Amino acid sequence: MNATVSPLDEVKSTPWSGGKSPFAAEYGKLMMWFFLLSDAFTFSGFLIYYGAVRFSQASWPNPDVVFQSVPGFADHGYPLVFVGLMTFVLIMSSVTMVLAVEAGHRNAKAEVAKWMILTIVGGLVFLSCQALEWTHLHHEGAWWGSNPFLNADGTMGTNQFTDLFFTITGFHGFHVFSGVIINLVILLNVLAGTYEKRGHYLMVEKVGLYWHFVDLVWVFVFTFFYLV
Amino acid sequence: MSTLSQQHIVSHDEEHATMTKSKIWKVFFVLLFITVIEFIIALAIPTAVVPKGLKNFVYIILTLLKAFYIVAFFMHLKFEKKLLKAAIVVPFVFILYFVVLMLTEGGYLQKYLNW
Q1: pTM of the model
Q2: Does the beta-carbon distance from B67 to A220 stay under 8 Å?
Q3: What domains can you pick out in chain A, each with its CATH number?
Q4: pLDDT per residue over A145-161, tens digit each?
Q5: Residue A213, class by beta-carbon neighbours within 10 Å (0-12 exposed, 13-18 middle, 19+ buried)?
Q6: ipTM score over 0.95, yes or no
Q7: pLDDT tens, A158-199?
Q8: B2 touching A, CB under 8 A?
Q9: How far, CA to CA in Å, does B7 sit from each of A89, B12, B67, B85?
């Protein structure tokens, strides 16, 4: 027998030749990424329709006029202040989420729990702010099918403005709400020591991806509803 | 055999080339800074000085920059395998195409249907 190895018997070590994960990502994490991709398509569908409607209108309500109240503090005269606060809270809760993931890499159970609690608090604060803002707008007569705001050029505004505002911020708020629930479940698991026994905190990383995605969507909603 | 184990060590190291606390706070301040710039443009610079169209263009650039920081660092995508990055990022070509299509369509409606 000669010692040369036939090409068929050579051991292949490329990422796609089997025996290991070609993406070097755990199954659940990979699926979370693909779920988020599909969710990004959903939100893009909403925001692109909103863009198309705006391009089809000669004028549109001025966000600095529509969103100028700070509920519980001042009814008007403070454009962008309240939504700025909401944006800050959501970015902050994203930071506490990465800190939880970072603590998870070190298997520091108490720290993971601490940062998860702060993340959940941030989510709840954001949701409360949104509830206040919706209530305020509702009192001004804004709701699905009813738009009290004039366009920037003084003409009657279209109901599409409020329909899209409540649908898109509502769908985002629902994501935040689900995120808070999921974070709560994970927090309970952390406290129960489930991940400590498992030896890794990958689940925290996976819900972290979801939570950052919610923040990511808000960045776009904020720009297209409150700035542009 | 030695190359295989070496590869294993390298990939193991990559896994841990991760976000440290100081890096996390750095990204936070970048995001905060960009948002503050957006507020300054919106509130402190009158439309007479910088036209609304240009402002909107800047907002969108800054938004995409924020999106990059969130996805790359908070969601850790920058440190994943090249193929995973491609699998997530490349599909957005369709979104971009859809944006162009729908905005063109909206513009057409305004111009020719006189809504």
Answers
A1: 0.89
A2: yes
A3: 39-227 (1.20.120.80)
A4: 999 999 999 999 999 99
A5: buried
A6: no
A7: 999 999 999 999 999 999 999 999 999 999 999 999 999 999
A8: no
A9: 42, 8, 32, 20
